[in-house]
Amino acid sequence: MTEYESRPGDSTRSVHAGRPPARAHEPALPGPVFAAHFHLPGDVTGPYTYGRDENPTWTRLEEAISSLESPGTPAETLAFSSGMGAISSVLFSQVRSGDTVVLPSDCYQATRSLQGRLEDYGVSVRLAPTAGDAQLKALEGARLLWIETPSNPGLDVCDIRRLADAAHAAGALVAVDNTLATPLGQRPLDLGADFSVASGTKALSGHGDLLLGYVTTRRPELAAGVRMWRKTVGAIPGPMEAWLAHRSLSTLALRVDRQAANALELAAALLRRPEVTDVRHPGLADDPAHSVATAQMTRFGSVVSFTLPDKEHAERFLSELLLTTEATSFGSVTSTAERRARWGGDAVPEGFIRFSVGVEDAADIVRDVTQALDAAAR
């Protein structure tokens, strides 16, 4: 293998990850395989037996994600029907009654909602915020530490390496929700995590048209537990969703680069508005998370958060947006925004806005936001 072939860049890996070698008269990415069962002659079991266990379309996607999350080091990825399917698989395959799990108190609200279910099963749950590596103080006796960085929706950042080292010293496994950063922005496994988990619904697939999740680990015994959980619970992705996500990977680097650049421009414009407070984006030089983010991230993501004076002001702002869709997600090629407090569950002000910056021209995004802010202030 030449030096070029052994050291491809992010965009090159994204384009070619998981695709078979070129073959005459065959597509570059074979179409989805729809099968509930496979032909199994004789007593020998083949690589594909039943549609709840494995599927060739999943395999290609999983190999692609592994090459992005863990370039150069063998890893195993398992795809799921949603991000929450992936998150649940790690938590419920790795902990038992009597164990302790440490969750971020400011993580994605659906992840935090699992606290009650874990406690129903006899698992103790401790909560601590992401900022300032506060979870360090909750590690004693824990079985698993769950990290989300940057956090959703507050965009706080913690030091993955520091937390992972401390967790391992305490005998705990470490899982990192890498949804917002993507594997091109941050590689938790390189920073000591045992699991990198993400919702592929967001930036990974990037078009707001499918649900998907995944778990990547370098430890075969951990992967086996997650695989068995997926098989018995049946949280499997559809072949079409897996194929669409794999197809979308070819533009991942282009999208996340454009979104990160656009997000910085929007954040800078928001800082100039007197009615806007608490503008957060890890790429801003004076953001509280910037120094830690710079040490472990190569791209800072598409999400900008900020706060308007109150609920009514925020609702007026959202209603005046022309280019931006009001939606509860992030990472799409189209810009989206929401007043996050409408859903409850997050400790944010009523005027808190989570804005996901798309790949439109930055000037158009800023112009749309500016005119909406002007209209909302009247």
Describe this structure as you would to a colleague:
- This protein has 378 residues and is of the alpha/beta class.
- The protein has 2 domains: 3-249, Type I PLP-dependent aspartate aminotransferase-like (Major domain) (Aspartate Aminotransferase, domain 2); 253-377, Aspartate Aminotransferase, domain 1, CATH 3.90.1150.
- 36% of the residues lie in helices and 15% in strands.
- It contains 13 helices and 12 strands.
- The chain has a 7-stranded mixed beta sheet with strand order 1-7-6-5-4-2-3, with helices on both faces. A 5-stranded mixed beta sheet has the order 8-9-12-11-10, with helices on one face.
- Strand 4 (144-148), helix 7 and strand 5 (173-177) form a beta-alpha-beta unit.
- The longest helix is centred in the last third of the chain and has 20 residues, at 252-271.
- Residues 1-5 have low confidence and may be disordered.
